[in-house]
Amino acid sequence: MARFPGTDASGRSRLHAVARPHRVAVLITDGFIPFELGIPHRILGNARNTDDGSPLYEVVTCTTRGPRAVRSDSDVTVLVDHGPEALESAGTVVVPAVSDDNSAFLTGTPIPEMAEALARIRPGTRILSICTGAFQLASVGLLDGRPVTTHWAFAERLQRLFPDVRVNPDVLFVDDGDVLTSAGVAAGIDLCLHVLRSDHGAAVTHDVARHTIVPPHRDGGQAQYIERPVPDPAGPGTAPTRAWAVGRLAEPITLAQLARHASMSVRTFTRRFREETGESPGQWLVRQRVDGARHLLESSDLTMEQIANRCGFGTAQSMRVHVQAALGVTPTQYRRTFRTAA
């Protein structure tokens, strides 16, 4: 059974039990992309304990061979203080994209120094890739048999070079437990926010997202950014109806009601809704209910039945099924792990 990332078998947070910050090593080599290098530092590096303001993560940059100056894919060069030995003490390793003139991307064969560095990672370490960083992980066999994603423009290439990898080009990120992969560029932000939420809950994540001026959770999947016919901007959208629905989560909401509020036929509304969010109305509504339950589990003393009613699940059992499917733990385990201090 899937387990909520950052928790042990009982649902207790692994990271909360550790007094010192969780160490994150960002591994780069020549040709790295500066924007993607900055994402883990900006998102995870700025996360703070809500009780005392102490840092929750120690984020360090390391290179594949000794402390040295590392050239980016642009006119930026960074002086990196850590060599690959930093990977041996990391609880999480992040591999951002590098320019597409390397052997992993071109032929599927690993960059020798990258392979040597990745071999230093301890078993059980959580590994993340951003964008085409997935090619580096796949080239050394770390993605064999796993569901993964990468930038939609390179998903077909990843699948062709690594047929044992299960590539999904239609999502912002894939969480497969100890290995997580993200789509292109800014999807690395979504992935790091997901990791932060998994480790420390919604309150910490919302604080970091607010200071970074990004949404804590983006609607839809990566597919919405793939080139497709653009909906008529002058036509009626579904945003007002989505806002209307969020304000009424405690009530039963049918597809017919949503379409009627938007003054559309059910067929037109469903098509427009998917174009704008990347999800069906039903999928979106369940996610809103789960997010609402999440917030109340963290911040209130309400019973499971009360939370289920307020979020529109009807019964605690129904809420349990949906929350466990979405988060990998029961509502009780989630509350035990992420309940914020009163």
Automatic annotation (TrEMBL):
<keyword id="KW-0805">Transcription regulation</keyword>
<protein>
    <submittedName>
        <fullName>Helix-turn-helix domain-containing protein</fullName>
    </submittedName>
</protein>
<keyword id="KW-0804">Transcription</keyword>
<dbReference type="InterPro" id="IPR029062">
    <property type="entry name" value="Class_I_gatase-like"/>
</dbReference>
<dbReference type="InterPro" id="IPR002818">
    <property type="entry name" value="DJ-1/PfpI"/>
</dbReference>
<dbReference type="Pfam" id="PF01965">
    <property type="entry name" value="DJ-1_PfpI"/>
</dbReference>
<feature type="domain" description="HTH araC/xylS-type">
    <location>
        <begin position="239"/>
        <end position="337"/>
    </location>
</feature>
<dbReference type="InterPro" id="IPR052158">
    <property type="entry name" value="INH-QAR"/>
</dbReference>
<dbReference type="InterPro" id="IPR018060">
    <property type="entry name" value="HTH_AraC"/>
</dbReference>
<dbReference type="Pfam" id="PF12833">
    <property type="entry name" value="HTH_18"/>
</dbReference>
<dbReference type="InterPro" id="IPR009057">
    <property type="entry name" value="Homeodomain-like_sf"/>
</dbReference>
